[in-house]
Amino acid sequence: METPTLFICLYFICLSVFGLSTAADTFSSGQSMKDGESLVSSDQSFELGFFSPGNSKNRYIGIWYKISPGRVVWVANRENPLTDSHGVLAFGHDGDLVLFNQSNSVIWSSNFSRVLKNPVAQLLDTGNLVLRENYSLNSDEYSWQSFDHPSDTQLPGMKLGWDLKIGLERHLTSWKSMDDPSPGDYIYRLNIQGLPQFELISLGSGKKYRTGTWDGIQFSAVPMVLHALTKLVFFNGDDEKFFSYEAIKSEYSASIFTLNHSGIIQFYTASKRSNAWNLAYSPNDPCDSYSTCGANGICRSSRASICNCLKGFVPKSPEEWNLLNWSGGCTRRIPINCPKEDGFLKLAKVKIPDLLEFWLNESMSLEECQAECLKNCSCTAYANSDVNGGGSGCILWFGNLIDIKEYEEDNYGQTLHIRLPISELGNFANQCLFL
């Protein structure tokens, strides 16, 4: 029986004999890729190889657009860098893709459970690095793929979200710095509790941004420019919930959706003529910051003072509010009269509150939703969960209403019904539903 040491020595002798051919998009068992060698996708769009980010001398395996080597879109060993240029990417004895250092220690592995008898690694034209059996080279049957393990970047065709059948979550994690691709302080992920919505989370201070819930047509905070440049796809099934996009503008040769090391979401495109990266979108509206106006406040970016209390509410701390410190939020001017009769104030074209304390029924009508809210004295607002076909489904909120933004554009946002005592509703009769 061979000892592990003898096996490794023989293994690397084989690798040194069967190197990587120039400009290939695949390599197979018995081949290897050394520092200075690379895989290139068949259409010359993407390259996989060794790189050092920024001013760092550490070495990593990554994927980048070939037109822009500095634009790295995926990193394999982001938590365990090589300290020299003697790394080797090869197949392990069970078919895993493995990165070895100079002392033959495993630095990174694809680490999948299925054993491959005749494995092949291929860099696809989409920028997806896939592993599969050699006989399935022309199929979409992958044993492992880099698209299932994003770094800080989403490419066209890549899914962000959940495969609930196997418990796989795909999310973006920022780099720690421009020189360090190890996982940083920010995560951009799909929250599927209740209605799906994307959230930008700071590991130190919680939510920084959210898209608003999926309303059956769109995420309300996704801007028109992204709809103009891309075909946005959201799949909301029982077994899988994910977001992806495809570029639709032929003049762009490349595009990326990325979460940078400072926690800023950005969408870039590159022109075929200049290959220069252009920032097409990044949230810069102060109302996009999470809970800018505090509890029971509403944010309107078109106003000089962007924060106001919802009607029927007053600043919890008038002194702080007057100093433009809105974090304390607002409180009811008059408590609701439950179990006596209350009514509802209609607020249109808004990003509905975050789903913190809520109840959801996706088959109710709006009238049934209203009646359900009135049954519970803790219910503070209600809305349809889906805007298709005039609206359907029911969301109830309990407690404070957090992170409401009003939109100026038509076809954005939803209608929220806020519970108020009858005495308050008399002041806003043209916007109210009396009960």
Mean pLDDT: 89
Shape: elongated
Please report the distance between the alpha carbons of the first and last residues.
83 Å
Portion in helices:
under 10%
Question: How is this structure best summarized?
Answer:
This protein is mainly beta.
Structural features, described:
- With 435 residues, this protein is mainly β.
- It has helices at 4-17, 224-229, 318-322, 366-374, 422-425; strands spanning 26-28, 32-34, 38-40, 46-51, 60-65, 72-75, 88-91, 97-100, 106-109, 119-123, 129-133, 144-145, 153-154, 160-163, 168-170, 172-177, 180-191, 197-202, 206-210, 230-236, 240-247, 252-259, 265-271, 277-281, 297-299, 307-309, 313-315, 330-332, 342-351, 358-361, 379-383, 394-398, 404-406, 414-421, 432-433.
- It has 3 domains: 1-149, Orthogonal Prism (Agglutinin, subunit A); 150-284, Bulb-type lectin domain (Agglutinin, subunit A); 287-433, no CATH class.
- The strands form 8 sheets. Strands 25, 26, 29, 30, 31, 32, 33, 34 and 35 form a 9-stranded mixed beta sheet that branches. It has a 4-stranded antiparallel beta sheet with strand order 1-10-11-12, with no helix packed on it. Strands 2-7-8-9 form a 4-stranded antiparallel beta sheet, with no helix packed on it.
Secondary structure elements and their pairing?
Elements: H1 4-17, E1 26-28, E2 32-34, E3 38-40, E4 46-51, E5 60-65, E6 72-75, E7 88-91, E8 97-100, E9 106-109, E10 119-123, E11 129-133, E12 144-145, E13 153-154, E14 160-163, E15 168-170, E16 172-177, E17 180-191, E18 197-202, E19 206-210, H2 224-229, E20 230-236, E21 240-247, E22 252-259, E23 265-271, E24 277-281, E25 297-299, E26 307-309, E27 313-315, H3 318-322, E28 330-332, E29 342-351, E30 358-361, H4 366-374, E31 379-383, E32 394-398, E33 404-406, E34 414-421, H5 422-425, E35 432-433
Parallel strand pairs: 25-33
Antiparallel strand pairs: 1-10, 2-7, 3-4, 4-5, 5-6, 7-8, 8-9, 10-11, 11-12, 13-22, 14-15, 14-21, 16-17, 17-18, 18-19, 20-21, 22-23, 23-24, 25-26, 27-28, 29-33, 29-34, 29-35, 30-32, 31-32, 31-34
